[in-house]
Write a structure and sequence with these properties.
Radius of gyration: 14 Å
Structural class: mainly alpha
Number of helices: 4
Shape: globular
Distance between the termini: 29 Å
Largest sheet: none
Order of helices and strands: HHHH
């Protein structure tokens, strides 16, 4: 289940560094976080849905890789995103 167009646009506007920015690491992490949130609620309701659970694990791994990249390349932006999303307390 992909993100609704309006939800995706809001996430892009929130994390974009400049107008037209739709592919930066920050935007990708924001979109992945929203999808992870959606699939997490789905899998909490549907306990036996192993396929969605596998997809959730893949999305979490992809987000973790992007965050690790940002941590090395742009530590200030990494800290801002972690704080904004409420990750890694």
């Amino acid at each position: 289940m992909p993100l609704d167009k309006d939800e995706k646009r809001k996430v892009i506007e929130e994390f974009a560094e400049k107008p037209g920015d739709v592919g930066s690491s920050a935007v990708q992490v924001g979109i992945l976080s929203k999808r992870i949130e959606q699939i997490s609620t789905h899998t909490s309701k549907m306990k036996k849905d192993a396929h969605s659970r596998r997809g959730l694990v893949r999305l979490v791994a992809k987000r973790r890789k992007l965050l690790n990249y940002m941590k090395g390349a742009r530590p200030e932006k990494y800290a801002e995103i972690i704080k904004k999303l409420g990750l890694r307390h």
